[in-house]
Amino acid sequence: MYRLLDNIGGPEDVRALPAERLEELCGEVRDYIIRCCADNPGHLGSSLGAVELCVALHYVFDTPKDKIVFDVGHQAYAHKILTGRRESFRQNRMPEGLSGFPNRSESRFDAFGAGHSSTSVSAALGLAEAARRLSSGEKVVAVIGDGAMTGGMAFEGLNNASDEDVLIILNDNNQSIDKNTGGFHDYLLRLTTDKRYNSIKRRIWDTLGEGRLRSWVQKMTLDTKSNLVRGTGGALFEALGIRYFGPVDGNNVQELVQVLGRLRPLKGPRLLHIHTLKGKGFAPAEADPTTWHAPGKFNPETGERIPTKYAADRYQDVFGQTLVDLARLDERVVGVTPAMATGCGMTLLATQMPERFHDVGIAEEHAVTFSAGMAAGGLRPFCNIYSSFSQRAYDQIIHDVALQKLPVVLCFDRAGLVGEDGATHQGSFDLAAFRSIPGVTICAPRNESELRNMMFTGLRSETGPFIIRYPRGCGEGTPWRDEPMSALPVGKGQCLRDGDDAAVLALGPMANRAVEAAEAIKSKTGAEVAVYDIRFLKPFDEDILARAIACGRILTVEDGTVKGGLYSEVAERLAGSGIPVRGLGIPDSFIHQDRQSAQRHACGLDTEGITKALEELLKA
């Protein structure tokens, strides 16, 4: 039971509280987030640090008329709890429950959807322009932080912000901008946000008119202020025509309310720089913000994490160790990640060979072109990007890598269905997106050993992007540690099971489920189904296709969108042949949050689903 939170049905109830009760409300919201996430894991640390900010925003601004745009979404848990979703937050990231990120279809308080980073400024500028043209009187706030300012799109938005009426809040949790430098900046903040100061300044500008005197006074005033704020990290924003305020303590709700109250009526682009503590209010999260960004299940009283038991090694661990092994074999090998070192397993390289490790921040486009530059200079970069994030670097992969035939190994982690992160993170589209690019190699391992061999093969590739895509989670339990690596014949698949009644062409771990399905079919009907692990979507193995054609019936299985990937490749080649071809894959729809196993079952991408598809194919 919470004395305040239990009576908060929406922001109007927050605004009805006396200001002196807001700190108590923040404590209750923080406790509620900790207890919910202890049993139902989510993005904990960032949201704990942003509790005071969310409370203050809804206290000062007239939401949902006023719009709040959150970047990434990792900071928005308190926002969801305060906007009528307190009870449903218990089902956060669950099937039929709340999305883990802001979602316009979920609530009128979610002004803009999020999931990928660095979009908030651009979206807020668009909302502000719409408000101006429609004369709606809405105020628009962009909340950016948790590393999102390292993304190039954020700076594109800032560069275009000079004419819009928007407040940008930079939630700095010690990942980028400099720390507060003392009491003088507090004085500067109070001065520049003071209502009387801004009223007097406007009257002076109006009195001076449009002549040379006004221009001289403005220039002197602005130059003086720019010199004063330079030490706070604000000079960059001032140079872009954005008025800078701060820094302030973002975990002091009373101060935030006062500052936001002063900034709300001001016009034009403004940036408020706040400092928050990631994991605020929960000692383990404060001490280790990286681990507690998304810690899994834990004991909310002691902070003891409940370890996840894995049936086999995770693909990210295979990648990380293999990259180190390859770096020891070849001094040209380097690793590049756009801020996903822990998630992709590249922390091993960072620890053991830090000079060969490059974390470029949340900047997928830069990661690819940076890798292309190193390849042009004679290095062999392994650039690891989550599959859904690779979409952001599509142009760079075409123009900077493929067109120049540069040997960059692109490893797409989290390919296929990813589970609770939902629609924004599904790795559904990489096969369809990259298959059409000339000179690209695309392959997918069916187990851990295959991933090692594909990375070794990619190192030996001399021209063009070499794409390896593999799923989130565990492998098949295949021995791989200390196993010798061997180069695979590029463009050649492998027969896993003979048969002449039908053929399955499968890509990646789906080949293992296809073998299980073929065995089930034999037990049920006696039919012999051939199973081929295609290995390489591009270049495509025409010999295997010819053997599959001889079976008379073909089923393709892939953990990517069925439109544009393996099924499309086979269907295009057999157009007009009369041979029945059926495709199993991710359907033409966005897949929302659920367990990976449930998502695969719903798409027919498990042994049961493939067995059913084969039964239907054999009856055709």
Account of the protein in words:
With about 625 residues, the chain is an alpha/beta fold. Helix 4 crosses helix 12 and helix 17 (about 365-375) packs parallel to helix 19 (about 395-400).
In short:
This protein has 620 residues and is an alpha/beta fold.
What's the helix and strand layout?
Blueprint: H1 11-15, H2 22-39, H3 45-49, H4 51-60, E1 67-70, H5 77-82, H6 120-134, E2 140-145, H7 152-159, E3 167-172, H8 183-193, H9 195-208, H10 212-229, H11 235-239, E4 243-249, H12 253-263, E5 270-275, H13 283-287, H14 315-329, E6 333-337, H15 341-344, H16 347-352, E7 357-359, H17 364-376, E8 380-386, H18 387-390, H19 394-402, E9 409-415, H20 430-434, E10 441-443, H21 448-460, E11 466-471, E12 494-497, E13 502-506, H22 510-525, E14 529-533, E15 536-538, H23 542-551, E16 554-561, H24 566-573, E17 581-586, H25 596-602, H26 607-619
Parallel strand pairs: 1-2, 2-3, 3-5, 4-5, 6-7, 6-8, 8-9, 9-11, 10-11, 13-14, 13-16, 16-17
Antiparallel strand pairs: 10-15, 12-14
